[in-house]
Amino acid sequence: MLGPRGVADPDPAETADWLASLESVLRHGGAARARFLLDRLEQKAREIGVVEEAPPYSPYRNTIPLEKQPPYPGDLAVEERITSIMRWNALAMVVRANMAYGELGGHVASYASAAEIFELGFNHFFQAGDATGAGADLVFFQPHSAPGVYARAFLEGRLSETNLKHYRQEIAGEGLCSYPHPWLMPEFWQVPTGSMGIGPMNAIYQARFMRYLSDRGLADTAGQHVWGVFGDGEMDEPESIGALTLAAREKLDNVTFVINCNLQRLDGPVRGNGQIIQELESVFRGAGWNVVKVLWGSEWDAIFARDTNHALLRRFAATVDGKYQTLGAKDGAYNLAHFFGEDEEVKALVSHMSDADVDKLKRGGHDFRKLYAAFAAAKATKGRPTVILAKTKKGYGMGGAGESRMTAHQAKKLDTDALKAFRDRFALPLTDAQVERLEFYKPDENSRELRYLRERREQLGGFLPKRRRTAAHVAVPDLSTYAGFALEADGKEMSTTTAAVRLFSSLIKHKELGPRVVPIVADEARTFGMANLFRQVGIYSPLGQLYEPEDAGSMLYYKESRDGQLLEEGITEAGAISSWAAAATSYSVHGLAMLPFYIYYSMFGFQRVGDLIWAAADQRARGFLIGATAGRTTLGGEGLQHQDGSSHLVAATIPNCRAYDPAFAYEMAVILDHGTRDMMERDVDAFYYVTAMNENYAQPSMPEGVRDGIIRGMYRFAGYGNGEPAIRLLGSGAILPEVIAAAKLLAEEWGIAAEVHSVTSFSELAREAREVERINRLNPGLPAKRSLVEESLSGSAPVVAATDYVRAYPQLIATAIQARYVTLGTDGFGRSDTRSALRAFFEVDRHHVAVAALAALADEGHLDRAKVADAVARYGISPNRPAPWTV
């Protein structure tokens, strides 16, 4: 006989003695004693160099043996009937939509594989909390399984037949969205999962935030659990496994992943030449998770009992997933010939079974009893998170139309024969005519099925998924009480990054709002001037501080504490934004409004983790993203990969993102105050992206009457020169001081009157301008409205705009300006150099702004073009050098 590594046994008799000894220990000392001896043998083998490591996975069988399987607490027959009904309604929902339109898409096979997983959770584990939803579990639903969740809500009476008939037809107002989208169904879905890989990381950080709230004494989250149902193919996304060690390190036993291992991605096997379940077990075990495998249904128990020589386990170990997929698509006769029949010892185990008997052998993920044992074990496990690896068939029940087929994921239409076969397999009380019409089926309200379904949910607190839209308001202190340094700066030099940190640090001291502030940083807190928070509020750690920090004697030493307020996440932007999303949705998940400030290098926000930001937007997040060291020229020496010239352009594409690029401390203060009131007092489902710079320059005090313009996006800052302005200059962020300097050059050196406008948000100006344009277009009989851009920049005097971002950013408002409009920006790759050199290189410094203004006036016939040439020469600009955006 060959050993597990394919090596021939040189002494079978000795091997038999060892195995007999192990069995004797098991009989007389029990499993714990046997495991202890094996652990000691493994340890000794490593010490003496016999083996370097043991396989990081267990045999290909259920983790929980039959003798340790708890009794099933529900009515299996009723639950199986309910699941069959939901399978049909989910199938009918998708097929109806595609027979009618042919273009709507939708997925059947994923829910078909996960139906038992969801129903087991709904009937026995997913807690809905109290009447308000407080204390509810958070469930991340596999996105392609949304039709199954809708099918359950239909039986519960939460969705109507009309809703189901309008699956993926939302515009009329009665339809259902494709995947879990809180923005589109704000009282139903709690978390979005449509972008694969986002859910697993968000689930871990939601579980961690529950502990954070509890450890800080803000909420009792002890009974809450986070469940994430994800696909095995989805685990290829780096975000899916990016936070596994955090969950183990912080002992998050309040999170359970259920991986639906149907062995198939969208186009074919996940690991055709390997075993994805064993691979995932290795990954999760290595990360410190408890792993529970649910591979084989109850029908296999008798076979395993006869397999005293473990021949079946050896056969499983030698079978790759590509073959498992083929076996799953074939009937019992094929399996007898091509799996059991290929090994005489294995063949003997099923010699008494017919083709039909073999055909009824189920995978563990379709067996309620096996799944219940796994879920119960997960809830009982303390001190570490659990992953359940549930083996299923993609398209289970779809027969030749999709069961374990390569094309299962794309199956959206079934012919009449396939639909009838589906009905027959699950014994659904539908006539041929009803099947052909794809009628939805709902038992009588007093039926055993619907009464059972409601009773189970009543015992678990109510229906899920369910989303709360509001939380108790939190009073915000008057701006003047904490922002005097910014409102009355009086020329004091500081950076807007310093101003932002000082503002939210002051908010932390407020009695009511302060505890709700959640400062978050993905490392480099000292870079952003946040080291004072180490002592002020402490760094959150569930373990506290088990060491004396090296800088213990300093004023701003590194202080970790269990009730720490600052989340210092380490070098993981994806983790930090997930942490921010958890805090930013706390008002809905926990009924507790929090105010997170995540401060980071702006280049590492929308460009690096934009998909996670978009998911937070879908979830109606409320909080601040502070893009520090922003712009392409303010972070002088860092160069290409650190310099941001595009984040505001991306932010402008997100409907509920309010993006600002303030130049002055008082602008920063007004924006943060307004956003805080929006989110904490007015229940506005928006989040704020505010860029801040690390450049120190003189900060003016706030002029009178500019507050409204700061929020709307623009206000007149000052005029330079005599008479009516011949040119209007717009600037934002770090480039506004250059624009102001350019206006002074125009007035002092060229005798041209200039007007400077501070633009705090081109995207907000563009949003308003689009709305006004639409209103005027659709209401031709009413007096035309005017946007702020049109009101502020009326007339024919040319307009020049300069920012530290690509030119497309200021061009957002181009259609609202009737005069000649010239934009300057930082298109191209970044460079390492001084700020002044970078601004000259990207042609956004004061000299280039002045030349652009002179050229615009010349183009309009208001100035001799010779003066433009004089300016180019005077300011040392080389007209023949390559443009900064050329490669």
From TrEMBL:
Domain Pyruvate dehydrogenase E1 component middle: 477-700
Pfam family of the protein (one): Transketolase_N
InterPro entries the UniProt entry points to: Alpha-ketoglut_DH, PDC_E1_N, PDH/Transketolase, PDH_E1, PDH_E1_M, THDP-binding, Transketo_C/PFOR_II, Transketolase-like_C_2
GO MF, any single term: metal ion binding
Record-listed Mg(2+) binding positions: D232, N262, Q264
Superkingdom per UniProt: Bacteria
Reactions mediated catalytically: N(6)-[(R)-lipoyl]-L-lysyl-[protein] + pyruvate + H(+) = N(6)-[(R)-S(8)-acetyldihydrolipoyl]-L-lysyl-[protein] + CO2
Cofactors demanded by this protein: thiamine diphosphate; Mg(2+)
Sorted UniProt keywords: Magnesium, Metal-binding, Oxidoreductase, Pyruvate, Thiamine pyrophosphate
Protein purpose: Component of the pyruvate dehydrogenase (PDH) complex, that catalyzes the overall conversion of pyruvate to acetyl-CoA and CO(2).
Keyword Magnesium found: yes
Origin species: Methylobacterium tarhaniae
Enzyme Commission number(s) of this protein: 1.2.4.1
Sequence ranges assigned to domain Transketolase-like C-terminal in this UniProt record: 713-845
The name this protein goes by in its record: Pyruvate dehydrogenase E1 component
Record domain Transketolase N-terminal: where: 139-303
